[in-house]
Amino acid sequence: MTLPAVAATQLTGAGSSFDYPFFSKAFYVYNQKNPDITVNYQSIGSGGGIAQFTARNVDFGATDVPMNAGELARAPGTVLQIPVTLGGEAIAYNLPGVTTIHLTRQVLADIYLGKILKWNDPQIAKLNKGVNLPDMAIVVVHRSDGSGTSYIFTDFLSHVSGEWKSKVGTGKSVSWPAPSSVGAKGNEGVAGQVKSTPGAIGYIEMAYVVENNMTAATLQNKAGKWVGCIPETVAAAAASKPEVSPTNFSIVDSAAADAYPISGYSWVVVYKKPADRAKELYDVLSWLVGPQGQANAKSVDYVPLPRNVQDAAAATLKQMQR
Amino acid sequence: MAQSASKHRNLARRRIVGWLGVSVALACAAIGAICLLIILGYVIVQGAGAVNRDFLTQLPHPVGVPGGGVGNGILGTFIILGIATAMAVPIGLLTAIYLSLFGRGPIPEGLRFLSDVLSGVPSIAIGLFAYAVLVAPLKHFSAFSASFAFMMLMLPLLVRTSEQAIRSVPQTVREGALALGMSNFRATVRIVLPTAMPAIITALLLAIARVIGETAPLLFTAFGSQFWEMNPNKPMAVLALQVFTYAITPYANWQQQAWGGALLLIGAVFVLSLGARLMLRRAMRGLEA
Amino acid sequence: MQNAEPQFRRVARFVSPADRGFAAVVYAGSILFALLIVGLFVELVLGSWPSIVKFGPAFIFNSSWDPITSKFGALPMIFGTVMTSLIAIVLAAFIGIMAAVFLADFAPRWLGQPLSFLIELLAAVPSVVYGLWGLFVLAPFMRTTIGPALQHVLGWTPLFSGPIVGVGLLTAGIILALMIIPTVTAISRDVIAAIPRDLREASMALGSTKWETAIRVVLPAARVGIFGACVLALGRALGETIAVTMVIGNRPEISASLFAPSYTLASVIANEFTEATTSIYISALIELGLILFLVSIVVNALARLMIWSVRGSERV
């Protein structure tokens, strides 16, 4: 029996589960083209990615919210942050027999605040005339791990609801106010929980919802239009803010006509001076943000980076000392 | 007469209560057995569909690509357990020999106390220890740190059972060896240990069976991997960790692979326990001889 | 197997160089063994020191677990750990002791042996498999069948009120109970069997039925050992991580309902350790590990004392 071949160079990365389907496909494709390089990526949440990256336990981290000043200060070296993908957070729900549901941003905030407890609440019913809403408790699902996906979602909720902003705030791990809400690990966990619990609602990256044939709510964006979470609406949100940087990155609650309100970039963090294998790391990452890497996005329901963002990312990467 | 009639009724009632009681007790015993059969049933039915040659030999496929397997997890389990055994057996045996030679006294009792303490420590705390000692200072996850954690989990069982095994070797055997002029060293290594070996191997098999399904310490030691890895200094895939990771995903393909992995784990525990029982019989026969 | 008395005090002289080398190796191994365990304790204390210094005893009583503001309080996790273990031990004690009574005194051999074997196999099932089964089989069953039934009958108590999600305290408690039933049963059965026949015969000679003997005479005589078995089982339940993490619901909150999602000391470490970014966060998590460590030592020591006093010095 021949022993399995071990790749010559193995890079490790960890972090965001938001990107995981995209990375999973992209690194697989990269390995097919470059058999001596493998990228071992573990989806442990953005918080985990930053922590392990700071501890230098992995070569790169992935996070849906760029490292803030405090986190950058704790890192043992200069950090480069590049956007690598664009995605939307669908509001998945599990109501047997209900194929579409409309929710305004305020109602969504109230559900997560714990102020609306049942699916047949009048506030939901008046948005969904003609839909048979069951008398079921809403099981709010959120992330139990430190999550960039949570950050984007709470950023959105803070924009939309003053009460949320003052009571809970924005962050990777917050104190979720809805009573009896359930925490799940990773986007995968939230999807799993929503899928198996009738009456559940949760925020999940678009790809997971499509992959698993789940139903997602149609939201009313800031411009007043009802939009679903699809690549076009996410791209519209991104287009409304062409210049993105690690300090100015939020594209939630965009005022653009077709924009999906809960969209976000996801980032890879890497040291300007990596400990080793800098060249391989540079090759993989610049492939990832370039047209070839981004071409994998569509097949797994992610949105390719806009051209100017790709160029900006490539320029940042060039600063890497390899 | 009235008195004996009421005594009869009383006895009848007590007998009925007795029957009811035994039925409840029987039901309780049955509940345990039935629950086990239910769990086994689910694992076999759900997992059998997943286990095939590809499952055992291939790497995991990315999300959305059907197929794939847990080959790297199986390999990783063997490697990590192998290293853990290689570390646990010497330490455990030596400690057991010490305890068997110096039975009473504060130091031996202290060692036994420490062993008892270790056997009660939750595996997650042992994982924290392995992280603090081998992952944080070296700045990378590794299979070796997982082996270290597994070694700690295996030690109490090994020490305790090996000590009993060595002490169970009849006094006559050791005294015979000493009477023939052997030093304690030779007496122990050449005579006593081999006699106790089947029981020690039993203990080892049971210790391995105990840790093969441990997942908690793996979360921050072995870290996991989607690729083949044989270098213990690197992160590595482990079957128990893969079962956990796949179980909490929403992908039906991966969920089924989780059941398949569970079936493999239960199968391994079963084989190890069977092996332990056979060894034990050999041990008992050896001692009776 | 008989425990031979250590017979070598006088003979344990290490005369030859080989013997001295042997002695050195044996000592080294034992010292290493001791160092590992002491090192475990020391590392846990060192790692949690910053958290101990910052939060003090309030750590145990504080109920907010907020990584953003770095305010850490262990109370919800302690609550979850205690509640799930309590549910587990209540269920497992009743089922386990009754099963032990049956197996020790009433079961005919053809029934007792297979039943014993099957119950012991419960202990062999790996923890992650319990979690898997709990997540995919028990949690949905709880949500569709057990939960509504309990709520129908007992919904007026706060214990069984509230929405039934499937995962939560009760589900985790039931899984834990299954995991510890073998411990309770096996030890209790041995303890009961060790009660001298004379006691039973005397009781029956005085006119008791077999059942009355078992319950009113034998069980009380064995109560210390049985209690010890339960405490030992409790110790195992307290530290169980993976199976509980998969079905507990991951919500650091104290609630009255058994159906509510919750969090345990072990689960929060498992879920959050790899992502703890600040050193005080890591330290707080290690302090949780230290609390778990100390509690399990106390519980285990208590258990063994009780079991030894009944079974003699043979170790569990």
List the helices and strands and how they pair.
The complex is a heterotrimer of chains A (322), B (289) and C (316).
Chain A: E1 9-15, H1 20-33, E2 37-43, H2 46-54, E3 60-63, H3 69-74, E4 79-93, E5 102-103, H4 105-113, H5 122-125, E6 139-143, H6 148-160, H7 162-167, E7 182-184, H8 186-196, E8 200-205, H9 206-211, E9 215-216, E10 218-220, E11 226-227, H10 231-239, E12 263-271, H11 278-289, H12 291-299, H13 307-317
Parallel strand pairs in A: 1-2, 1-3, 5-10, 6-7, 6-8
Antiparallel strand pairs in A: 3-12, 4-8, 4-9, 4-12, 10-11
Chain B: H1 2-48, H2 53-57, H3 71-101, H4 106-120, H5 123-135, H6 143-168, H7 171-179, H8 184-211, H9 239-247, H10 252-288
Chain C: H1 17-55, H2 58-61, E1 65-66, E2 71-72, H3 75-106, H4 109-124, H5 127-154, H6 169-194, H7 197-205, H8 210-239, H9 242-247, H10 265-272, H11 279-311
Antiparallel strand pairs in C: 1-2
Helix pairs in contact in C: 1-11, 3-4, 3-6, 3-8, 4-6, 5-6, 6-8, 7-8, 8-11, 10-11
Structure description:
The complex is a heterotrimer of chains A (322), B (289) and C (316). Chain A has 322 residues and is an alpha/beta fold. Helix content of chain A is 37%, strand content 20%. In chain A, a hairpin with a 5-residue loop joins strand 10 and strand 11. The model of chain A has no long low-confidence stretch (mean pLDDT 88). With 289 residues, chain B is mainly α. Helix content of chain C is 73%, strand content 1%. In chain C, strands 1-2 form a two-stranded antiparallel sheet. The longest helix of chain C has 39 residues, at 17-55. Chain C has eleven helices and two strands. Chain C has a single domain, classed as MetI-like (MetI-like fold, Orthogonal Bundle). The chains are: A alpha/beta (322), B mainly alpha (289), C mainly alpha (316). At the B-C interface, helix 1, helix 3, helix 4, helix 5 and helix 6 of B face helix 1, helix 3, helix 4, helix 5 and helix 6 of C.
State the order of secondary-structure elements of chain A, H for helix, E for strand.
EHEHEHEEHHEHHEHEHEEEHEHHH
Kindly identify the CATH topology of the largest domain in chain A: D-Maltodextrin-Binding Protein, domain 2
| CATH topology-level fold name of the largest domain in chain B | MetI-like fold
How many domains of chain A?
2
CATH superfamily of the largest domain in chain A: Periplasmic binding protein-like II
Label the structural class of chain A: alpha/beta
End-to-end gap of chain B: 64 Å
**What top-tier CATH class of the largest domain in chain A fits best?**
Alpha Beta
- Nearest-integer average pLDDT of chain A: 88
How many individual helices of chain B?
10
**What's the CATH class label of the largest domain in chain B?**
Mainly Alpha
Mean pLDDT reading of chain B: 87
C-alpha geometry of chain B? flat
Describe the largest sheet of chain A.
9 strands, mixed
- Structural class call of chain B reads mainly alpha
- Helix % of chain A is 25-40%
Radius of gyration of chain B: 25 Å
For the largest interface, the chains and their residue counts are: B-C, 99 and 102 residues
Low-confidence stretches of chain B: none
At CATH level 2, the architecture of the largest domain in chain B is: Orthogonal Bundle
Number of helices of chain A: 13
